[in-house]
Amino acid sequence: DSPEEAQKWLIGLELLREETLAAPTPVLIESWLRKQMYSVNQTKTNSLSVKELKSLLPMLNYKAPSSRALKDRLQEVGVKKDRLDFEQFHKFYNLMMFEQNEILDEFKREACSFILGNTDKQDASAVLLHDFQRFLIYDQKEPWANDLTHVRELMTIFIDDTMRKTNDPEFTVSEFLSFLFSKENSVWDEKFSEINNLDMNNPLSHYWISSSHNTYLTGDQIRSESSTEAYVRCLRLGCRCVELDCWEGPGEPIIYHGWTRTTKIKFEDVVKAINEHAFVTTDFPVILSIEEHCPIEQQRQMARIFKEVFGDKLLSEPVEHMAEQLPSPTQLKGKIILKHKKLNVEGGVTTRDFRRGQKQGDLEIWDPVDQRWNRHYCVISDDKLYYAEEYEEEEEDPRKYQELHCVEPWFHGRMKEGRLMAEQLIHDYCAETGGQDGTFLVRQSDRYVHDFTLSFWRSGRVQHCRIRSGSEGGHTYFFLTSNLHFPSVFSLIQHYRENPLRCQDFELRLTEAVPSPDPHLQERWFYSNLSRGQAEDYLLRIPRDGAFLIRQREGELDSYAITFRGDGKVKHCRIQKDGNVYLLGTTTEFESLVELVNYFKKKPLYRKIKLRYPVTPELVERFSTNENCSSIYMETYVKPNEIEPSL
């Protein structure tokens, strides 16, 4: 109510902030865990029900492989009668965080400065005082660790039991792992946290730069939400390099973690958030690391947005034209730098590279499967013609955006006994995950040919809304309420994941998507009753590499094979279903066969072969072969390419 009172609040908040920054890691973790526990604890007691724990798991970035695995974990921490006290909750958290046994295996090698003790039990003594001191001196290279008193004080911070805080302390496995992943074991030397402006005049490449990976994500890399707030948080914490994963969206670029279930946000919204918060904490330059997946047309949109939003902040010209090294952070103050691959050639323009004596241009090749001419970038060099894969189409067909929902995990297509099946799926999913309001799926309407139904969980039961369609000026639109139209079902769902659906009786934002149990059954490239020989016969009729189908292997319920053409031959790769995932080769996991196909449409499956042409019954009818093709059969299954670790 007065400036004096406001000043007291500011002083108090600053003291709390300083106290939090100075607090040791175990205190911070305990405080955070109590906050999470009380946020879902309906009875306000110092305990949690298993149902309340399940609702917390997504906030802890943890998804139990199965109900059985979760039950085993709870038994491990001594849970009885489906309730956990705080101590058990804390132990459960440690089990989740440190269940990777390969970390512990490193401390069983002879080369280690000490041999870890009993690691079979988390509460067993594993690291003695003098062992820990040797570890700090010889492995971590900490000179202060020569002072045994200092080492003893550090150990007592991480020891849970007051009775074990003696002159000769010992770490349990859990406590030792807590130390390894704590800020007290950070590789960063805090004396460098304060920036000296006199030292900021060297070339930019001479500095460590605080950087962020997958900046847009608020949680894990598979199912979490993307948010502009994540950029705001990073920039205000002093981060100077943020990442933008840019993908083709409905009419404009979007940002999300490609080929996952993370939500999508508009590219332009992210750029505006960066512009507003880039230099609040510091004037030193911001680097935007662009991971580009957009076609040329949407890249042009990105360039226009960068120029319009950033204006003079955007670094578009060299700071010094004759410079022999990068400019310094001081020279780049207040500037935003784009880190992006340059395009090799402008589409459609033929140029001559006089330095190499090469001609560059376009080559058009007839595609007998799609029955159209495809344009390829080509180069003539040393009397040879080299050409790349065809260009992405720059002219956009607005109808393709109306089908974006078809590859989303929340879309279930036309369901047998639609309403009843939708309710059963949502009930089962909510029983498994804790039943968050807004858990949803979308299916085709049982009654209306061009409409859809949104089914969602609210207040312990499933409700349904009709997604209606209409047409205006030759364009189809979709809506839940007559005053708000969307060009596609996909954009409608994205809107209500970010903004609440307002009805007369309630407001609700869509949250968790209920995945389709077997989405491949809706796909024309999947065959549930096709032999290996029949599959090869189908592929022989399609005269192009990249033709493919997936079939269920004969007599094996959880085993599939992808049959495709590559290098002019018919090849096969095994796909094994293991629990809820599909395993290709020995290490590559996908949550569905649809996800697998979509991934290898973008990435090579075998050598340089991508999945290009789905072999549907209609396509097989169009083609026949008159030649003896027995030479292109493959007797054995081939191994797929090793997948990128980021998946």
TrEMBL record:
Catalysed reactions listed for this entry: a 1,2-diacyl-sn-glycero-3-phospho-(1D-myo-inositol-4,5-bisphosphate) + H2O = 1D-myo-inositol 1,4,5-trisphosphate + a 1,2-diacyl-sn-glycerol + H(+)
Key words, A-Z: Hydrolase, Lipid degradation, Lipid metabolism, SH2 domain
Pfam families: EF_HAND_1_PLCG (PF23329), EF_HAND_2_PLCG (PF23583), PI-PLC-X (PF00388), SH2 (PF00017)
Residues passing through the membrane, by range: none
EC identifiers of the protein: 3.1.4.11
Enzyme class at the top of the EC tree: hydrolase
Gene3D superfamilies named among the record's database cross-references: Phosphatidylinositol (PI) phosphodiesterase (3.20.20.190), SH2 domain (3.30.505.10)
InterPro entries referenced in this protein's UniProt entry, alphabetically: EF-hand-dom_pair (IPR011992), EF-hand_PLCG1 (IPR056586), PI-PLC_fam (IPR001192), PLC-gamma_C-SH2 (IPR035023), PLC-gamma_N-SH2 (IPR035024), PLC-like_Pdiesterase_TIM-brl (IPR017946), PLCG_EF-hand_2 (IPR057061), PLipase_C_PInositol-sp_X_dom (IPR000909)
Domain SH2: 410-514, 525-615
PANTHER family recorded: 1-PHOSPHATIDYLINOSITOL 4,5-BISPHOSPHATE PHOSPHODIESTERASE GAMMA-2 (PTHR10336:SF25), PHOSPHOINOSITIDE-SPECIFIC PHOSPHOLIPASE C FAMILY PROTEIN (PTHR10336)
Name this protein carries in UniProt: Phosphoinositide phospholipase C
